[in-house]
Amino acid sequence: MTKYPVIGQLYSLLKEFHGIVFSRKENKLESWITAAALQIDELDTYINGLNADIDAVKNGIHYKYNNGLAEGSVNKIKLTKRIMYGRNSFQLLRAKLLLNECYYKIN
């Protein structure tokens, strides 16, 4: 850590952010954002994204429910559609998606 102090700072910030998210303490997010300003482009981009929709981020930390299951299903449909694009008909795409759903429910 003494050779690369920025790595140590990033690791500490990551652990702190993880603690904020999983302990559901959205009130500590503002202080974390202030402390995380390390003049690192990638981290600054991430922080700007958090600040752009801070209310949604706080709600995501505060509430237990999310739309992860729906987003995963939509992502799977889009991937299948992208793979089959221009090769087959809509009926085959529909049949393939329904077959995949039945397969995953069985296993």
Automatic annotation (TrEMBL):
Signal peptide: none annotated. Coiled coil: none annotated. Pfam families: DDE_Tnp_ISL3 (PF01610). Residues 4-96 form the Transposase IS204/IS1001/IS1096/IS1165 DDE domain. InterPro entries: Transpos_ISL3, Transposase_DDE. This is Transposase. It comes from Lacrimispora defluvii.
